Structures are given as structure tokens and as C-alpha cells.
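Q: Here's a chain of 292 amino acids. Please give me its 3D structure as C-alpha cells.
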Amino acid sequence: MLLWASCYPLITVGLDSAPHLTFAVLRAVLAGTTLLAVGIILRKPFPRDGSIWGWIILAGLGMTGLGYYGMFHAAEFVSPGLATVIANSQPLIAAGLAFLFLRERLSSKGWIGLWLGFAGILIIAGPRILQGPLALSTGLAYVLLAAFGVAVGNIAIKKLSGRVDAAIAMGLQLLIGAIPLAFLALLTEDQGRIDWSPVFIASLLGLAIPGTALAFWLWQYTLGKIELSKANVFSFLVPVFGLTIGAAFFGERLTPLIITGTAIATAGVWLTTIKSSSDVQPKAKGARDGRA
């Protein structure tokens, strides 16, 4: 989540040097190629099972395709605060999808934690929601499209966990998701506007390799260890880390409202992930009696 949070200032630095979708395509292609190169060097096998390829394609179209498309376009219509709030509904959407398709069940405490985390994000973003003109119908549609795409992508990544090497799977999904983005970028943007300055190259490298390639590899590894609904709640920390980075390096001010929202979001993460007595499987009667 810290790596994903670092993407926001890097995007801000590089966005003036390239068209939006073109920048997103460069990010995805560089990150995907890096991961595939690592997988090939480590001699990891490519998937052969058709169902695995299906989940990789779904992950790419959802997480990278719809996710990047929606968020990059939403910035033109809605304020950053409102986009942050709607985008962070993704863990709630994913929890519902995980219940339907992965049979994951959150306890009542887990659901309270999810909503508490979302409330914290709402408080953090509150002052920014009314900044600037809002084309709500179009902007909200883009943000919700991105949130739904990321949620679907997370379901697919969870399905891939343990079935295919993380570097290979995440590299492929990034490159597959970049295909429709590249097609749209070629139709709607002028790639000649890219300014290959040292600042843009540095922001692209930081965004693509640690911020995307390493982050996605760690994410698939994580989903192989714990349930999606519990791992995904940590997404509420991305804006928190982002604000901390902004305060440390860009002079952004941490107001009492932001600190309160951060505390509430962190409490939601803690509440969702701590174990309760219902999470612990009782021992068999024979084991308790020493007969097993």
C-alpha cells in the first residue's frame, strides 16, 4: 500500500509531460515487461491451463484496463476528494464479489471495520470534495467504472494465487490490460506531445517498477496467504500514506480533520484484520482429551 501511495506524487510530477492515457500505457507496459523479464530469468513457467489464462485476461481488463481508464479520465470531471472517496468504495465492492465468487465471509466486526475505514476516507477527503466544478454524472461514472474494474481484477488475482507464478501472472495482466488503453490512446491522443525530460523519465521509472511491478507482485503473493476481503481493507491506508508523503515532501498541511480521518481509517483496518474467537477453529474433542 505504501508503494501504491507513492504513485500519486509520481503521477502528478509526470502528468504534464505526457497525455493521460499514453502515460498510463507506458506505465503498464514498462511494469509488465519488467515482471515478465524477472519471471523468465528465474525460469518460471508460463500458464498452459485455459482457465488460468481466462483469469489473467479478466485481471488485466479489470485491474489495468478499466481501473486506469476510469481513474485517469475521472480527474477531468471530479475533484480529487470525491474521486478518492468513490474509488475507496472498491474494498466494499470486492467484499461483496468475494462473498459471491470466493465464498469468503466477513464477520460483523469485519463489515464494521470496512465501513469504518470508508468513513475515515470520507472525512479525509471531505474538504476537497467541493473544490472545483463537478460534472457529477460523467465523473462519478468514470470513478465507479474504475472501482468496479479494480474489484473484479482483485477477484481474478485471488483466483490466480498459488496457481501461477506472481511475476508471470502480473506481468501478463499488465500487458493485456494495456492493449485497449493503447488503442484508445492512439485514437484520441497525440503521442508526439511526450516530453522525455529527465524528470518525466524518473517519474515513469519510479511509477512503473516499484510503484506498479513490485506492488502487484507483492499483492498477488499476499492474496495467496490471506482472504481478499481482509487484505483489501488495507487499501484504505493508500490515501493515508499519500497524505503523509505529501506532508513530508510536498509541504501539504495535515489538518485536525485529516488526522481524525486517518485515525478512523486505521481503526477500521485494525478491526477488520484482528482475529476473534470465531476465527479460531476449536480443537476436536479427542485432541482435547489427549486421545488424538
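Q: Can you summarize the key feature?
A: Confidence is low (pLDDT under 50) at residues 277-292.
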